[in-house]
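Structure in, sequence out. Go:
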């Protein structure tokens, strides 16, 4: 099966800034993939490369088997795209912009656009320039969805929407995926995206640090905390694959995969360590992974600075 979205060894730099560093992952058809990360992680760059709006320095990006470098126009004709700040013709009305866009797509586009506009509570006679930020976002969503694209690429699509409309929109993405279409969505609304996504890709400073099925990631991971007993300086060894470890004095916090809970509790009892184990949500997973990788980067920078100081001496 050809992936709906594919990146293989994609890198992109802006001068000295590394936006993407050898990123590779596939999204199968009929999936909703959440693309997560802090500001500046490379999320928007990834989406723009998929659309052929910018070219990678190296690597290959494909949408529906089409190469984003060679087939950019075909990709943009067939996908639905909502950027974080959509560019709309302010002098048009809500109805007119749908009529204008319909000239670029097959018959039926305008009727579907109008159904979506009605669903989002938009008045056809209102000028785009007079719309609130939230209603401008609704127009952009209706324009992107009206031709029922096989792939939806959404960059903060619900920014400015009220909570009810935001939730209804995100939940509608499940129906889109059930029809065999694919959604990749970059969003800061982690808890709400968690309700609809079946896959997650996490970027940090241009590096892909996680790409998994969300249900498997949550099922296999545990957040483990430990409070050391009197006289202890080192916690018991955690019988698991450690994804993140955050020492905080006498308290330690781990994100662990494949934890042997019985063995861990026995080690805690033997060392008078107080521990708590829970299944983390997506937001917890994201925060712990980001904190771990930032810690590693800080440690690497400190080692480099020490090595430079030693050389200068």
């Amino acid at each position: 099966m050809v992936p709906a979205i594919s990146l293989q060894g994609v890198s992109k730099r802006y001068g000295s800034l590394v936006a993407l560093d050898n990123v590779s992952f596939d999204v199968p058809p009929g999936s909703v993939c959440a693309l997560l990360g802090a500001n500046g992680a490379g999320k928007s760059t990834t989406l723009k490369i998929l659309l052929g709006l910018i070219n990678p320095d190296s690597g290959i990006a494909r949408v529906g088997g089409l190469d984003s470098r060679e087939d950019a126009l075909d990709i943009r004709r067939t996908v639905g795209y909502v950027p974080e700040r959509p560019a709309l013709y302010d002098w048009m009305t809500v109805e007119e912009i749908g009529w204008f866009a319909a000239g670029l797509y097959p018959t039926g586009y305008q009727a579907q656009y109008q159904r979506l506009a009605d669903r989002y509570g938009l008045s056809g006679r209102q000028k785009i320039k007079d719309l609130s930020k939230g209603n401008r976002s609704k127009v952009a969503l209706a324009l992107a969805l009206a031709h029922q694209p096989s792939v939806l690429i959404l960059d903060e699509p619900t920014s400015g929407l009220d909570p009810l409309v935001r939730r209804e929109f995100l939940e509608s993405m499940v129906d889109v995926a059930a029809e065999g279409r694919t959604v990749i969505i970059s969003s800061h609304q982690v808890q709400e995206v968690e309700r609809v996504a079946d896959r997650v890709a996490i970027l940090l400073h241009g590096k892909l640090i996680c790409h998994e099925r969300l249900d498997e990631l949550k099922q296999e991971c545990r957040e483990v905390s430990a409070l050391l007993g009197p006289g202890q300086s080192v916690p018991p060894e955690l019988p698991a694959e450690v994804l993140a470890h955050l020492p905080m004095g006498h308290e330690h916090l781990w994100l662990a995969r494949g934890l042997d809970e019985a063995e861990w509790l026995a080690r805690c009892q033997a060392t008078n360590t107080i521990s708590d184990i829970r299944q983390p949500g997506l937001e917890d997973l994201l925060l712990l992974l980001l904190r771990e990788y930032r810690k590693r980067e800080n440690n690497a920078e400190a080692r480099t600075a020490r090595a430079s100081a030693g050389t200068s001496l």
